[in-house]
TrEMBL record:
Key words, A-Z: ATP-binding, Nucleotide-binding
SMART domains according to UniProt: AAA (SM00382)
Location of the AAA+ ATPase domain: 121-253
Family designation: Belongs to the AAA ATPase family.
Cited Gene3D superfamilies: P-loop containing nucleotide triphosphate hydrolases (3.40.50.300)
Nucleotide-binding listed as a keyword: yes
Signal peptide: none
Protein name: AAA family ATPase
């Protein structure tokens, strides 16, 4: 059964208070997680369902139908509740990074054990590195592995033109998060975490940083906070110190590109030579660039009713990639922040 169908059936059985059907759906989910070799998660789900009576209690009074907070000025939601469907097996990263992410998940799942021994799990992680290199998908994978929804914080809404409203919006976000358990993801974190010593910033950013530090220190929710930035050198040093761990994501190596292409081109039929041609044409590309090229190839084959990748598909996809890159480079030009050059 597709994941979407499972989720729909799970909600319907819960709504109808059909305990037997609810447990049957949960059993399907546990079986699926075991097939994916997510034995820890499967065991936890099994323990939960065996210890309970089929009813899923709300965490800290939160229900899935609570409306997200909105910006008072623009009236737009400050965050999105997402349910990612990516797992570590879907990622192609450096082994050291994968190991670190798995350790974060392991500690978080072992919260009670650590707490009973006077220790705390990793609760705040800073992701940094160039755009398109896996920060967001890694956060999604962590949420999926933990079986938690993601709170995706919308910085275009959080940062307000009204004096003092940005700090107020941040408080609203954390007040909302306090009522449940999540993976909180702050993308483009430098929008509020910029250094207070930056001469180009005005007094408001200093107030925002101070407010964020205070809110983060006082946040007692049992959630994992992940912040991502492309410009880590712009982050205030005091904020750096608030994070338990940092992960830097880089552009993929040739071998990582090859593995990613082989994953993302499926179920299309392709050859080793075609993958090598793509790797050569995607030198210095990001993970996002490579995924977009794979989508171009698969969509063309789908529209033409075939699964086999033709030589012209490779040429066309690389040509489109080169064209996009030329537009990007012309539009950015000298405007690329110095902090991104290493």
């Amino acid at each position: 059964m597709a994941r979407a169908d499972v989720l729909k059936k799970l909600l319907l059985t819960y709504q109808r208070r059909d305990d037997r059907a609810f447990r049957e759906v949960v059993a399907l989910i546990i079986e699926e997680e075991r097939r994916k070799h997510h034995s820890v998660l499967a065991n936890e789900l099994e323990q939960i369902i065996n210890n309970g009576q089929g009813e899923v209690p709300a965490r800290n009074g939160f229900t899935a139908f609570d409306r997200p907070p909105v910006d008072a000025d623009k009236g737009v939601p400050l965050l999105e509740v997402r349910h990612p469907d990516r797992y570590f097996d879907d990622l192609v990263l450096e082994p050291a990074i994968t190991k670190l992410l798995e350790r974060v998940v392991y500690e978080f799942r072992s919260w009670e054990v650590l707490e009973a021994n006077g220790l705390s799990p990793t609760r705040r992680v800073l992701f940094c590195g160039p755009s398109g290199c896996g920060k967001t998908v890694a956060a999604e994978a962590i949420a999926s592995e933990l079986g938690l929804p993601m709170l995706y914080v919308r910085f275009d809404a959080v940062v307000s033109s009204l004096l003092g409203e940005t700090a107020s919006n941040l408080r609203k976000v954390f007040d909302y998060a306090q009522r449940g358990q999540w993976v909180m993801f702050f993308d483009e974190f430098d929008a509020i975490g910029r250094s207070r010593d930056d001469p180009t910033e005005h007094g408001e950013i200093k107030r925002v940083v101070n407010s964020f530090l205070q809110i983060l220190d006082n946040f007692k929710g049992r959630s994992l906070v992940i912040a991502a930035t492309n410009f880590e050198r712009a982050i205030d040093p005091a904020i750096w110190r608030r994070f338990d761990d940092m992960v830097r994501f880089e552009k993929p190596s040739s071998d990582q590109l090859r593995r990613l292409l082989e994953k993302r081109l499926k179920p299309a039929q392709f050859t080793t030579t075609q993958v090598k041609e793509l790797v050569a044409g995607l030198e210095n590309a990001t993970y996002a660039d490579a995924e977009r090229v794979c989508l171009d190839i698969r969509k063309l084959g789908t529209l033409e009713g075939r699964r086999k990748v033709e030589p012209q598909d490779i040429s066309d996809a690389l040509e489109r990639y080169a064209y996009r890159q030329s537009i990007f480079e012309r539009s950015v030009g000298d405007a690329v922040p110095m902090v991104d050059k290493e």
